Amino acid sequence: MAKRRLTDQQKRRIASNKNSLSKLKGTADKSADNHIFNGLVVSHHGKKLIVETDDKKQYACKLRQNLGDIACGDNVAIQLDQKNHGVVVAVNKRKNLLEKTGFAGLAKAVAANIGQLVIVCSVEPEPNNYLIDRYLTAAENLPAEALIIINKIDLLNDSNRASIEAIKETYSNIGYHLIETSIKEHIGLEELKAALQNTTSILVGLSGVGKSSLVKMLLPDTDIRIGEISTASKEGKHTTTVSSLYHLPDGGNLIDSPGVRDFTPRNRDKEDIVNGFIELKPYQGYCKFSNCSHTTEPGCAITEALNKGELSQQRVNSFKKMLDDLEQQTR
Ligand SMILES: Nc1nc2c(ncn2[C@@H]2O[C@H](COP(=O)(O)OP(=O)(O)OP(=O)(O)O)[C@@H](O)[C@H]2O)c(=O)[nH]1
Ligand SMILES: [Mg+2]
Ligand SMILES: [Zn+2]
Asked: Partners of 245 in the beta sheet?
């Protein structure tokens, strides 16, 4: 019989079967001196995994085959041999999984069990609205809280102030929590600390916006690399290459992730995109034509709301672009 590729759902099912199996096995194995422990994946890169057990010890682990994609933030069971070499033998059921569309359109796990997606932007490199909107749809669909940070507020000047103000207005009008920060001038850091308490947050965004710098500010003793910004392109240099999870002193976990050039969320269908634009939802289904493209059609509820100033043109453009992108993908 030809080899068949497993669907994501099948992989998940196998992983969860193994999970229940190994839980059973766990009790028996312990007596046989085969130690099985619960742990949290605190870093994952390629085949290398670091798992932290409940007693806060960290072990480099390999992955048993067929467990599917494992991500930072996953709760797992590991088996340790006499030399403390670990193997991940099971993945616990997840609350959610942040996935992106990776190479050749395949799903790639970014992080698991996320309570809050922290979209980090900066004055320089300048924010990309479409990227923010894509992350917001990811947050809405996880579901997880969304927080927008505008870092490096110390770099505000007459040429960038208007565009940063526009971003603040757009997203706070919708109701998103937005914090302006500057590590250099100690602005907004207490508000950020409070927003990160008692949940697992992941810092996401372009390279060079200051994600790792924020982690370093919150956890000064952490050994974490901070990168330079290219003076020519004003872009980051992709300094962080691996997602890592840190424990915050006031409670809560913070995952630092590698900066992206782009992020394509796993929107399976139109519903996910509709669900991702929270302020557009009340207008959905009120256009005269059910297949309205919200451009030139008469009786378009979204165009009417735009004309009344109830919606942001930029957000509506993102919404349409995401629908177009999805159509191209599925064509
Ligand atoms: N002026 C200013 N510079 C900052 C601030 N925060 C971070 N930086 C600088 O921004 C640069 C990039 O910081 P990183 O923390 O490495 O950025 P990152 O988002 O982790 O980048 P990647 O790991 O590549 O994704 C460094 O030179 C930091 O010193 C800030 O508040 N103000
Ligand atoms: Mg970094
Ligand atoms: Zn319409």
From this structure: 255
Q: Ligand 1 within 6 A of 68 CB?
A: no
Record: fold of 97-256 = Rossmann fold (3.40.50)
Tokens found for residue 94: 């997840």
Nearest atom of ligand 1 to the alpha carbon of 216: 15
In this structure, which residue's CA is closest to atom 14 in ligand 1? 210
List the residue whose alpha carbon is closest to atom 10 of ligand 1: 210
Q: Per-residue pLDDT tens for 148-180?
A: 999 999 999 999 999 999 999 999 999 999 999
* Calpha distance 107→29 (Å, rounded): 34
**Which ligand sits nearest to residue 239's alpha carbon?**
1
Could you tell me if the CB of 240 is within 6 A of ligand 1? yes
Helices (H), the chain: 8-31, 129-141, 161-174, 189-196, 211-218, 270-276, 301-307, 313-330
The rounded distance, in Å, linking the Cα atoms of 13 and 235 is 41
Q: CATH says 275-330 is which class?
A: mainly alpha
What CA–CA distance (Å, rounded) separates 136 from 117? 8
Q: Is 155 in the pocket of ligand 1 (CB under 6 A)?
A: yes
184 lines ligand 1 (CB under 6 A): yes
Ligand lying closest to the C-alpha of residue 289: 3
At the topology level, CATH places domain 27-91 in: OB fold (Dihydrolipoamide Acetyltransferase, E2P) (2.40.50)
pTM for the structure as a whole: 0.89
User: Ligand 1: which atom is nearest the Cα of residue 203?
Assistant: 19
- Residue 239, ligand 1, Cβ within 6 A: yes
Q: Is the peptide bond before 143 cis (omega within 30 degrees of 0)?
A: yes
Closest CA to 196 of 149, 132, 154, 242: 149
Question: What are the sequence ranges of the domains in the chain?
Answer: 27-91, 97-256, 275-330
Residues 297-331: pLDDT tens digits?
Answer: 999 999 999 999 999 999 999 999 999 988 887 77
